[in-house]
Amino acid sequence: MTQANSRAGMDRRGIITSGLVLAAAQIASPFVIRARAADAVRIGLDNPLTGTYAANGKHELEGCQLALDEINAKGGILERPAELVVEDSTSGDAGAAVQKARKLIESDKVDFLLGNVNSALALAMAQVSNEKGVLHIVPGGHTDAITGSSCHWNVFRVCNTTQMEANAVAGALIKEYGKKFYYITPDYAFGHTLETGLIKAAGALGGEKVGGDLVPLASVDFSSYLIKAQAANPDVIIFLTQGDDMLNALKQAVQFGLQNKVHLAGAQQEMEPLEGLPSEARIGTWVMEWYWNQPGVPHVADFVEAIKKRTGRVPTARHWFGYVSTWTCAHAANTAKSLKAAEMAKSLQDFHLPPEVALGPNPAFYRAGQNQLIASLFVGDAQAGGSAPDDLFKVTKVVNGADVAGTVEESGCKMIWPTT
Amino acid sequence: MTQVVLFNVFNGLIVGAFYALMALGLSLILNLSGVINFAHGGFLALGAYLAFTLIPYVGFWGALIVAPLLTAALGLVIERVLIRPLYGGDPLYGLLLTFGLAYIFEDMTRLIWGAQSLPFQVPAWLTTSLSSQFFFVTGYRVFMIAIVVAAVGGLFAVLNYTRLGMRIRAGTRDLDTVSTLGVNVRVLRSLNFGIGIYMAGLAGVLAAGLLGLSPTLGASLIMPSFVAIIVGGLGSLLGTLLGGLLIGVASGLAAVYFPSASEAVIYVMMGLVLLVRPRGLLGEEGRLH
Questions:
Q1: What is the set of domains in chain A, with CATH numbers?
Q2: pTM score, two decimals?
Q3: Number of domains, chain B
Q4: In a domain? residue B285
Q5: Which of A53, A228, B32, B35 has the fewest CB atoms within 10 Å around its CB?
Q6: pLDDT at B190
Q7: What is the ipTM for the molecules in this complex?
Q8: What integer pLDDT is reported at residue B3 of this predicted model?
Q9: Residue of B11, B107, B259 with shortest CB distance to A223
Q10: Residue B234 counted as domain residue
Q11: B31 touches chain A (CB under 8 A)
Q12: What is the pLDDT of residues A181-216, one digit of tens each?
């Protein structure tokens, strides 16, 4: 051992000791977990807490936590206390999401699995939950396959399919702006299905795709695409990007003054990007899946107050997704009077959410044979500020999900139940 | 189509200038201290967030001046406490440390400012387009070019016409001799690091006006900086400048013909440069030993 080596910091003994400590920590952890309440019903949340979707994941978590407290205040699930076990799936690493899902199911022995914001991760996790026979609710992953071609008996979804969103907003886009669409589409599962859905829905009304670009996720600069889009001379540039990509694209489009030459709109929109935009960029026609400002709809104001008290802000659709997902777990167990996944899944077929969970003007139910929640969609225009500084969306039409959901056959879902 | 191509080249130069600003700070630190500063993106994001917090008090222009200075001050502290002990050792240690720092910065900004993207308000007269035909030439982008030119000009002036600059240039060639000649090399490295971080902070404030302000801002911008340095050549600041402009234009052109590759094309360029001319376009041989 030379002088230089020992001065460089870690010596051999230090490395061995830290290695042993790390190994011990790995083995010791299940014992730590077992120290939790032995009779609690566990709900495992495997959602992004870091990365691009961290904000969405955090809001879904806050919705889950509110629901959890309400559930426990009412006696819990099957008379037992309910507990939330939270894991960070990361925003894009399917391997991490799957590993966490396995950990939740095998080590933490969760009775329910919730997640993921990222459609691709949700699909990967669904494989695991199906293999292990655990009831899985997807709060906010939109790609059609989750309750379509890759549907499973144990997987339920709260948010809309991309086809439903497209069907809801296509009419408004054509009526407001015209028939020639240029698509700026994020290059992954969600983007592809949303674009396909909107082309189909708009096409049925005479809409035409004059051009489009598949943009890599987490693109930073959209100027090239906007230059191309403007050159194609459309009536409206359709932004299908989400999250920070939506923010960057819209911000840059408005800086270019494109809204004076061409209309800017899209399909799915959420509060999170709208809040991050400068006020002059809060424009366009979009569809939201849930909105906090619903005058005249009972229970919504209470939910808004409850979230405001916990987080200091109004709820977004993500809060509602988390809230509904967690309450769905409680209702599934309490209705089936059992924690067996197959029995709970059966009890959720055509299950109608009570109004204080549905929080919308139309009934909300999980469609039998597809496990897809059919509720309401809110078509409207982004605005810099309405009745309140956080009233960033003016709802022009509430669409009944049942009118835009198509049939179960069209979704491509062929549900196979386990033969117990 | 030619018009679209030309527009994209022109726009690519604008974006490339921004990449060059980020990469120059990184290159400065790498050349003198041999430290591969993976936390550069983190400092960039920190500059942006500090500007966001300061704007209500000192306005946009005040924040533009103060935020990079604050970031540089933090950079000096980190250099003194964390990075100085690693000089002269394996460059891997510096890389590991700054890599970890990058994660810490990201989570720290998430903890302090939240995971939500924040609305960064730039003065309204800046964010309008200057010409109807060349609509992508906005006041903000011209302003950005002006700042980049001023910063790069300032940097080259400091390096060529001040004693500090002369010592930094000498130090990048042979630090031992400079030390033997009586220059306080520790202070020199600190100041050099501070200048590099100042440029990161400045790039951060500019980025926030263009992009969304979220904790992942740094992570999304760090890689083009590295590619700019590798393409332009290690050891050459002019090369870094050129590298930044090149990758900006390449990315813009790729978006015209093959959009899915617009992010990947800069890595393809890096790969080609490494295969054909590993020292980079204007780099010096045997730089990183």
A1: 41-160+297-374 (3.40.50.2300), 163-288 (3.40.50.2300)
A2: 0.83
A3: 1
A4: no
A5: A228
A6: 94
A7: 0.74
A8: 78
A9: B11
A10: no
A11: no
A12: 999 999 988 899 999 999 999 999 999 999 999 998
